[in-house]
């Protein structure tokens, strides 16, 4: 199971780094995540995340039990100690718990990065459309519609005098 979590962690780190830097792979990663978030994808991801969260809680509970069992045993000198078997079990559960936690954290990071990349793309399109509209308006004003702007300036100055 530890090998599986290392593989998942490596894949998630690769996707997160792909989303962080603007490379040709970023577009593919965004498309893949878009497809994953359609249909039954979100339900499946939530189910897997909930299962991993339950496994994480179980691992943490087992670690607490091992610690509690070790605190109840005193050796001859009155010092609390773990047996070698408990040390191995504790280190294995600690490794599993940390890998599960990192995996859940990276999944959250990937989701947020995906949303931010899509939002940036949408804002850039809006900015291009507004700048294009602004450019056409400036060209129209410069080509002969100066009378309208002069009338607008006159209306503004009249409104200022009235107040």
From TrEMBL:
One Gene Ontology term from the biological process aspect of the record: endoplasmic reticulum to Golgi vesicle-mediated transport
Q: Which residues form a coiled coil?
A: 106-140
Which cell locations does it reside in? Endoplasmic reticulum membrane
* Keywords for this protein: Coiled coil, Endoplasmic reticulum, ER-Golgi transport, Membrane, Protein transport, Transmembrane, Transmembrane helix, Transport
Ranges where the record places region Disordered: 140-163
> What is the similarity comment for this entry?
Belongs to the BCAP29/BCAP31 family.
Instruction: Name the membrane topology term.
Output: Multi-pass membrane protein
GO CC entries: endoplasmic reticulum membrane
Residues annotated as transmembrane: 40-60
Q: What is this protein called?
A: Endoplasmic reticulum transmembrane protein
The record's listing under InterPro entries reads:
BAP29/BAP31 (IPR008417)
Protein's UniProt keywords contain Transmembrane helix: yes
Reported function: May play a role in anterograde transport of membrane proteins from the endoplasmic reticulum to the Golgi.
Residue spans of biased composition, Basic and acidic residues class: 145-163
């Amino acid at each position: 199971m530890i090998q599986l979590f290392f593989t998942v962690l490596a894949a998630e780190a690769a996707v997160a780094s792909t989303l962080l830097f603007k490379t040709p792979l970023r577009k593919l990663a965004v498309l893949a995540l878009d497809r994953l978030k359609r249909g039954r994808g979100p339900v499946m991801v939530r189910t897997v995340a909930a299962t991993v969260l339950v496994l994480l809680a179980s691992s943490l509970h087992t670690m607490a039990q091992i610690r509690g069992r070790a605190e109840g045993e005193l050796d001859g000198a009155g010092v609390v100690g773990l047996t070698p078997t408990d040390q191995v079990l504790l280190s294995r559960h600690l490794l599993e718990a940390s890998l599960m936690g990192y995996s859940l954290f990276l999944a959250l990071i990937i989701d947020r990065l995906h949303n931010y990349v899509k939002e940036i793309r949408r804002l850039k399109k809006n900015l291009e459309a507004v700048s294009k509209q602004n450019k056409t308006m400036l060209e129209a004003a410069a080509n002969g519609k100066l009378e309208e702007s002069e009338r607008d300036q006159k209306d503004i100055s009249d409104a200022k005098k009235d107040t």
